[in-house]
Design brief:
The chain has twelve helices and 56 strands. It is α+β, with helices and mostly antiparallel strands. Among the domains are: 281 residues, Methylamine Dehydrogenase, Chain H (7 Propeller), CATH 2.130.10.10; 108 residues, Lipocalin (Beta Barrel), CATH 2.40.128.630; 91 residues, no CATH class. A hairpin with a 2-residue loop joins β16 and β17. It is found in: Cytoplasm, Cytoskeleton, Cilium axoneme; Cytoplasm, Cytoskeleton, Cilium basal body.
Length: 733
C-alpha cells in the first residue's frame, strides 16, 4: 500500500505510516524494521509531524510524541510507543497536513474544507486562521512561529496569527500548489506545483529561483534543517538542490511518486514516502571543500579524500562515525561527526586532534586564523586549533538553531552575531572571554540586517564589520564600542553578496551590475571623497543574477553563479602588498611600490592609509600624485603649526572629526584655536558658546560674524549674537 508520511525521531530512527494502517519504525544503524502499532481500519494516515525536541533550551534525547492527520477529518496525538493519546475532530473531509510550531506551543492543521486552524499543545482549538473555497494542501510555520504559510490553489498566502495584521498573498504557480516549506534559518520558502516546477521565494514573496518544467508534477519539497540544501520529489525522481535553487544531483529511483520527504535531524540523510509502498532513503555524499591547493571530498559517509593538486598526493581520512559538517580554511580542516570533532592540519593529515562533542549535531563551523567556532542546538563554542575550549558566548534570548554563515562572523579577536528576535541588532563579543564588547551595548541599525562579515586582519582596536541590510545597502562600522561610537557609513548599494579577504582588509562584493573591490574600506573614516578612487570595478553581467561569493583567498575570488557553476577571478596583488607595508610602517617601501605600479587607485589607498596613520609626509606625496592639490596645501599648512596638539587637531579636522579636534584643543588649553576652528567652519553658535564659556575672545567672534554678515549683505537675526552685542551675558543652557 501507498506510504503517506515519515518522520525522524533521532538521526538514525524514523517512523512511517501507510494506507495499510500500520506505523512502522526503522532503525538505520541495525537495519531493523519493526511494527509499532496497527491503527483502526477507518484511519488512513496523511501527514505526520514529531513534537519538537528542543523545548525551552532543554534538549530531550528524542522526540516523545507526534501528530498524525487522517482522511476522516481528525488528527491524532500518538506517543512514541504507538498509543493514541487523543483524537480530535478537526475538519470536514481529510486533514491534509499538520505542523507543530518551532517551540511546540501550537499546532496548525489544514484540510479539504479550506480551513486553516490553530490548536493548543493539548489539542484544544485556539482559532480558525483562515477559510477558503478550495482545499489547503500544505502548510508551514514562519521562522518565529508568528506567521503561517499555506497554499490556496495557485496562490501562496502568508498570514500572521495576530488579527488585523497584513496578509501577504501572491500567485506562485500556473497549476495547483501541492507542497510548500519555509526554512527557519535562511527564511526562504519552497513551493512545488502541478505545473511541474519548483520555486524558491524570499519571505516577501520575491521569486529567487524557478526550475525548468519537469515531466511530472512536483509532489514534494523539503528543506534540510540548516537551510543549505533542499530536496525535491516527483514521479520516479529525487533531486538534491542548493538553497539558491540549482541542482547538485538527480536520482531516478523506481519509486512511483514521492509524496513526502523528511530530512534527518543532522541533515546528512533523508527519507521519502513512495506511492508503491516503499520508503526511500538517501544520503548526502560528494560534498567538496577547497582551500588554496587542497581539495577535500566526502566520498563515503565516514570517509574523506584529500587531494593536493600541487603534487597529486591523495590522503584518505577515515572517521568512526558519519561526518555531519566540515570546514577547510586557514591551514586547517575541521570535521564534526555525530559524537566527535576532528581538527587536521594541512601540513599533516595523519594525526588529527580529536575531542568529544556534548550535543552532537553541529549545525555550523566557522574558522578564523587562530580559532574556530562550533554551533549546535545548545550554544556557540569557540575552540582553539589545539582543541581547547576558549569561550562560549551568550546573549539574552539566543537561539543558535537559526544562525548560519550569513548571520554569524568570526575574526581573531571578535565574534559578531545578528539577533534573530530583532534583526536590526548585532551582538559583538570579545572572542577570548566570550563577553560582550565595550559597554555591552549591541550595534543597532535602522533596518533589518541580512548578512554580516568581520574583517580578518589588523589591530583589534580597528576591527571593522561590514553588513548588508534588507534594502541591499552595504554599510561599514567599527566594532569598538567605547565612548564615542564611530558612525555607520554606507559604502555600497544593491549589494548581493560580500566577502573579506583572508590576509588583508580588502572587501569585495557584487553590487547591481558591477563587481566591486574596496581596497581600503577604512577610507570612509579618513577622507570620504577619496573612497571612489580606492575602488576596483568590473562588469558583473557574466555572473548572471544572484551570484554568491564563495571564497576570497589571496588575490583569488571564487564566485558561484545562480546555475551552480564556479567562476574564478584574480585581482591585482599590489593592494595586499601595500597593506602589508603600511601595517609594518614601511612608508618608503609603500611609496616606492606606488611609483613602480603607477596606478591612481593605489596612490589613493596610500593617501588614505597615511592620513589614518598620521604620516603627513607620505600623505603629501600620495595626494600630489592623484592631483588633489587643495589637500596638499592643507597638509603643508598643518606641518607649519607650532604645537603637536594643534597639528593633531587639524589632522582630525582633515578627516572631518570636528568634535574630537575641539576636545583635543580644549584639553591642551588652546581655547582660541578651538574657537577659530568653529569660525572657519561657520559654526557660529558653537564658537560663541565656547567664547562665553571660557570668558575670552567674545569680541573676536562678534567681529568675524559681523564681517561675515556684511560680506553677504545680511542683518543679524540670531538672538544670542544680538544679546552679546548689547553686552548682555548669556545664560548657559
Amino acid at each position: 500500500e501507498l506510504v503517506s508520511c515519515v518522520g525522524w525521531t533521532t538521526a538514525d530512527e524514523l517512523y512511517s505510516c501507510s494506507n495499510d494502517h500500520q506505523i512502522m519504525k526503522w532503525n538505520l544503524l541495525t537495519s531493523e524494521t519493526t511494527r509499532v502499532v496497527k491503527l483502526p481500519d477507518e484511519i488512513y494516515p496523511i501527514d505526520l509531524h514529531w513534537f519538537p525536541r528542543n523545548i525551552g533550551g532543554k534538549k530531550q534525547a528524542h522526540a516523545e510524541s507526534f501528530v498524525l492527520t487522517s482522511s476522516d477529518g481528525k488528527f491524532h496525538l500518538i506517543s512514541k510507543l504507538g498509543r493514541v493519546e487523543k483524537s480530535v475532530e478537526a475538519h470536514c473531509g481529510a486533514v491534509l497536513a499538520g505542523r507543530w510550531s518551532y517551540e511546540g506551543t501550537a499546532l496548525v492543521t489544514v484540510g479539504e474544507d479550506g480551513q486553516v486552524k490553530i490548536w493548543s499543545k493539548s489539542g484544544m482549538l485556539r482559532s480558525t486562521l483562515a477559510q477558503q473555497g478550495t482545499p489547503v494542501y500544505s502548510v508551514a510555520w514562519g521562522p518565529d512561529s508568528e506567521k503561517v504559510l499555506y497554499t490556496s490553489g495557485k496562490q501562496l498566502v502568508i498570514k500572521p496569527l495576530q488579527p488585523n495584521a497584513k496578509v501577504l498573498q501572491w500567485k506562485a504557480h500556473d497549476g495547483l500548489i501541492l507542497k510548500t516549506d519555509w526554512n527557519s534559518v535562511n527564511d526562504l520558502i519552497l513551493s512545488a506545483g502541478e505545473d511541474c516546477k519548483y520555486k524558491v521565494w524570499d519571505s516577501y514573496g520575491r521569486l529567487l529561483y524557478s526550475s525548468q518544467p519537469h515531466e511530472y508534477p512536483i509532489t514534494s519539497v523539503a528543506w534540510a534543517v540548516d537551510g543549505e540544501l533542499f530536496a525535491v520529489g516527483s514521479f520516479h525522481t529525487l533531486r538534491l538542490c542548493d538553497k539558491t535553487g540549482w541542482s547538485y544531483a538527480l536520482e531516478k529511483p523506481n519509486s512511483s511518486n514521492i509524496f513526502n520527504i523528511a530530512w534527518s535531524i543532522d541533515g546528512t540523510q533523508l527519507a521519502g514516502t513512495c506511492g508503491n509502498g516503499h520508503v526511500i532513503f538517501a544520503h548526502v555524499v560528494e560534498q567538496r571543500w577547497e582551500w588554496k591547493n587542497f581539495e577535500v571530498t566526502l566520498v563515503k559517509r565516514r570517509t574523506m579524500e584529500v587531494h593536493n593538486v600541487l603534487n597529486d598526493a591523495v590522503d584518505l581520512l577515515e572517521f568512526r562515525d558519519r561526518v555531519i559538517k566540515a570546514s577547510l580554511n586557514y591551514g586547517h580542516l575541521v570535521v564534526s561527526t555525530s559524537l566527535q570533532c576532528y581538527v587536521f592540519s594541512t601540513k599533516n593529515w595523519n594525526t588529527p586532534l580529536i575531542f568529544d562533542l556534548k550535543e552532537g549535531a553541529v549545525s555550523l563551523i566557522l574558522q578564523a586564523e587562530r580559532h574556530f567556532l562550533l554551533l549546535d542546538g545548545g550554544g556557540l563554542y569557540l575552540y582553539s586549533y589545539e582543541g581547547r575550549l576558549i569561550s562560549s558566548p551568550k546573549f539574552p534570548g539566543m537561539r543558535t538553531d537559526v544562525l548560519n554563515a550569513q548571520t554569524v562572523s568570526l575574526s581573531n579577536d571578535t565574534l559578531a552575531v545578528r539577533d534573530k528576535a530583532d534583526e536590526k541588532v548585532i551582538y559583538i563579543f570579545e572572542a577570548l572571554s566570550g563577553k560582550l564588547l565595550g559597554d555591552g551595548k549591541p550595534l543597532t541599525h535602522k533596518t533589518e540586517i541580512v548578512e554580516i562579515a568581520l574583517d580578518q586582519k589588523g589591530l583589534t582596536s580597528e576591527r571593522k564589520i561590514a553588513f548588508i541590510d534588507k534594502n541591499r545597502d552595504l554599510y561599514i562600522t567599527s566594532v569598538k564600542r567605547f565612548g564615542k561610537e564611530q558612525k555607520i557609513v554606507k559604502i555600497g548599494t544593491m549589494v548581493q553578496t560580500l566577502a573579506w579577504n583572508d590576509t588583508s582588509n580588502i572587501l569585495c562584493g557584487v553590487q547591481d551590475t558591477r563587481f566591486t573591490v574596496w581596497y581600503y574600506p577604512n577610507t570612509v573614516y579618513v577622507d570620504k571623497d577619496l573612497l571612489p578612487k580606492t575602488l576596483y570595478e568590473k562588469d558583473a553581467s557574466e555572473f548572471s543574477k544572484n551570484p554568491q561569493i564563495a571564497h576570497f583567498v589571496g588575490n583569488q575570488i571564487t564566485i558561484r553563479r545562480a546555475d551552480g557553476s564556479l567562476i574564478h577571478l584574480s585581482i591585482s596583488p599590489y593592494p595586499a602588498i601595500l597593506h602589508e607595508y603600511v601595517s609594518s610602517s614601511k612608508w618608503e617601501d609603500a611609496v616606492r611600490l606606488c611609483r613602480f605600479v603607477k596606478d591612481q587607485t593605489l596612490w589613493a589607498c596610500l593617501a588614505a592609509m597615511a592620513v589614518a596613520s598620521k604620516d603627513m609626509a607620505t600623505a603629501e606625496i600620495a595626494y600630489a600624485s592623484i592631483g588633489e592639490i587643495d589637500k596638499v596645501q592643507y597638509i603643508n599648512s598643518i606641518k607649519d603649526l607650532p604645537s603637536k596638539e594643534s597639528r593633531m587637531a587639524h589632522m582630525l579636522l582633515f578627516s572631518g572629526n570636528t568634535q574630537e579636534a575641539e576636545t583635543l584643543l580644549l584639553q591642551a588649553g588652546l581655547v582660541y584655536q578651538a574657537i577659530q576652528v568653529h569660525i572657519d567652519l561657520y559654526k557660529w553658535d558653537r564658537a560663541l558658546e565656547l567664547a562665553v564659556k571660557h570668558k575670552t575672545h567674545i569680541d573676536t567672534v562678534l567681529a568675524c560674524r559681523q564681517k561675515f554678515l556684511e560680506d553677504f549683505g545680511k542683518k543679524e537675526t540670531n538672538k544670542k549674537f544680538l544679546q552679546c552685542a548689547e553686552g548682555v551675558s548669556i545664560p548657559q543652557n
